[in-house]
Amino acid sequence: MSTLLLIGCLFVLIVLLNKRRLARFVHSNSFFVRKLESFSWFQNEWLAGIFLFFLNAFLFGLAAAAFILTGMLPIPFFHLVVMFLATVLSIYLWFVFREAVNRGRRESFIMGSVGSSFYFLLLLIFLYMLVTLEPGTPEHDTGMAFFGLIFAMFVSLVAFVTCFWITGLSKKSTTK
User: Fold this and answer.
1) The whole model's pTM is what?
2) What is Dmax (Cα atoms) for the chain?
3) In whole angstroms, what is the distance from residue 62 CA to residue 90 CA?
């Protein structure tokens, strides 16, 4: 499992290091970018950040539901494909947000901070669950729950940093 975690982190690191090249795949005339730009509330960095917050919550819920549903299938390792696709979809939508914003660094920083804070709150929830972890019955394996929560905290931290880096710290690409 730790190998998969390292492979996922390597994938995210490659995305972050090549974000300018990858941002070229999201054009300013794409459907999602034009739709976001057409909303007047999207020009307010606080409202755009709140929308990004709820978009991240929706994507997380969708990925969690898909993860649970694929766990019920008799196909081994299919949940890994679903998680990879969820990661790619999230990163794509963050690049759409990056392309749709027409604001300065401060406003982008605010939008990225508010939007990516969903993953920071998730990290704090997992930390609370870790601190208050205790076995309910002798059959409960607290060690596996501990490792699962550590894994979830690490994934939440990586998602927070990636979302913030793409939406809050990036300048809009000038090459269209």
Assistant:
1) 0.82
2) 60
3) 11
